[in-house]
Amino acid sequence: MSPDELVYLGVLAASIPLGFLFRYLSPPVKQGAAMLLGLSITIATCQVHTLHSLVTVIGTWIIIKSSWRLAPALSLAWTFLYLLFFRLVTWFSLSAPTPFANAVQLLLTLKMVSLANEVHGFHVEKKKEVSSFGRSSVVAHLSREPSLYDIMSYSYCYVGVMTGPFFRFQTYTDWLEQPKPLALPGWVPCLQRLKLVPVYGALFLAVNSAFPLAYVRTHQFLDHNFFFRFFYMVAVFFAFRMRFYAAWCGAEAGCISAGLGCYPERAQCKPGGGPTVRYSVDSLAEETYDFKTIQNIDCYNTDFCVKVRHGMRYWNMTVQWWLHHYIYPNAPFKSYALRAGWTMFISAYWHGLHAGYYLSFLTIPLCIAAESAMEASVRARLGPRGQKIFDGIHWFLKMRAYDYMCMGFVLLKASDTISYWSSIYFAVHVLAVGCMIVCGVLEGARRGDKGKTDKSKITRDDKTEKHH
């Protein structure tokens, strides 16, 4: 493991026992202590580059105070343009940010855009309540506009400050105002989330050492046969998954120990978004709680779901919620494939400026279009047994598609990504395009057969009428 990864591991490991201590604090003390701890971690790891996050927070606060109506659009423009400056600071003779500063900035971008949308929603619902003299129907909306101190404490809350998961400002305030945090579940769900982390970590270390990524960039790699080169991406993506499974499960455990994102099951929470159904805390009732609000990874379904589009739902789930609510609905296109492509482009930009991100993310809409075409042209016309076989093949191809796209994500450079993809003859791109062509031919043939059948029927009908 690299020194940076060891620091991440240390922050994650320390946040879990600290979380249980925070349950003993009153709301004001909890808010101040969480901010000071998070700010200390940020300064210690980011040093002078902490200023980037500070400028982003203050800029968002100014936008919200200046015009809450335009805050969602302006905050998105502000944070994403600042991300561009942040990644190009060396062009202005400034020192390059540390990886920790990059992690903080990424999560802060999500938080500030979400916050601006929440404040906008608060004012809209307040106007509705005044005009209708009724209670707002929106679930989990803000009760007041946050102050600069509130925004700072939310931005630098130690929980997930570098590691995630993303959570809304409302989730944060609900955490501060929990009436009986010590009565909420803690140890059992925390240990449940951590039980496989050592396994994921060991598998990552073993596979990563046996199949180092750097070997792909060597001339010796190309001397191997096609099957070795093809299998290499399977091993690389496996190690990649194990690394993030361990990190995200650990990050979720840090939230669980603090009680962040703990809601009654009847609130029907969504990862990232929180409650979707109104609920009231009844001290006399025995509640069953969950931590779905801060769930960032579903390891089983990531590996074993059938479709490419479903695989995205179970990976980095809180960020997927953010993209689905703030980017996808505002895409400048109407078709699903183009809106998905736009969302993937924004996701790639959020991750960074490396060409590998864009090559990988923009391959996803192609794969989705191919699997949709195959489902409509082939699967829909099969019997139950045939559909099971189809789904098995579909799952295998889905995993290979993600293996393939992962290489762009980890190799980063366009030259390295294209060099690897060309070494396996752009297999996934060729297969996806081939499936779409075959489906187009099948649909054309079916329409032709239907047209002939309809024409034959009309001719028979005409002959029958003449006979009569």
UniProtKB/TrEMBL annotation:
Residues 446-468 are annotated as: Disordered. GO terms for cellular component: endoplasmic reticulum membrane; mitochondria-associated endoplasmic reticulum membrane contact site. It comes from the Eukaryota. Pathway: Lipid metabolism; phospholipid metabolism; Phospholipid metabolism. The keyword Transmembrane applies. It is a multi-pass membrane protein. It holds the Pfam family MBOAT. Keywords: Acyltransferase, Endoplasmic reticulum, Membrane, Transferase, Transmembrane, Transmembrane helix. One of its GO terms (molecular function) is lysophospholipid acyltransferase activity. GO terms for biological process: lipid modification; phosphatidylinositol biosynthetic process. It is found in: Endoplasmic reticulum membrane. InterPro entries: LPLAT_7/PORCN-like, MBOAT_fam. It catalyses: a 1-acyl-sn-glycero-3-phospho-(1D-myo-inositol) + (5Z,8Z,11Z,14Z)-eicosatetraenoyl-CoA = a 1-acyl-2-(5Z,8Z,11Z,14Z-eicosatetraenoyl)-sn-glycero-3-phospho-(1D-myo-inositol) + CoA; (5Z,8Z,11Z,14Z)-eicosatetraenoyl-CoA + 1-hexadecanoyl-sn-glycero-3-phosphocholine = 1-hexadecanoyl-2-(5Z,8Z,11Z,14Z-eicosatetraenoyl)-sn-glycero-3-phosphocholine + CoA; a 1-acyl-sn-glycero-3-phospho-(1D-myo-inositol) + an acyl-CoA = a 1,2-diacyl-sn-glycero-3-phospho-(1D-myo-inositol) + CoA; 1-octadecanoyl-sn-glycero-3-phospho-(1D-myo-inositol) + (5Z,8Z,11Z,14Z)-eicosatetraenoyl-CoA = 1-octadecanoyl-2-(5Z,8Z,11Z,14Z-eicosatetraenoyl)-sn-glycero-3-phospho-(1D-myo-inositol) + CoA. The chain crosses the membrane at residues 6-25, 37-64, 70-89, 197-215, 221-240, 356-374, 418-442. Belongs to the membrane-bound acyltransferase family. PANTHER family: LYSOPHOSPHOLIPID ACYLTRANSFERASE 7, PORCUPINE. This is Leukocyte receptor cluster member 4. It comes from Hippocampus comes (Tiger tail seahorse).
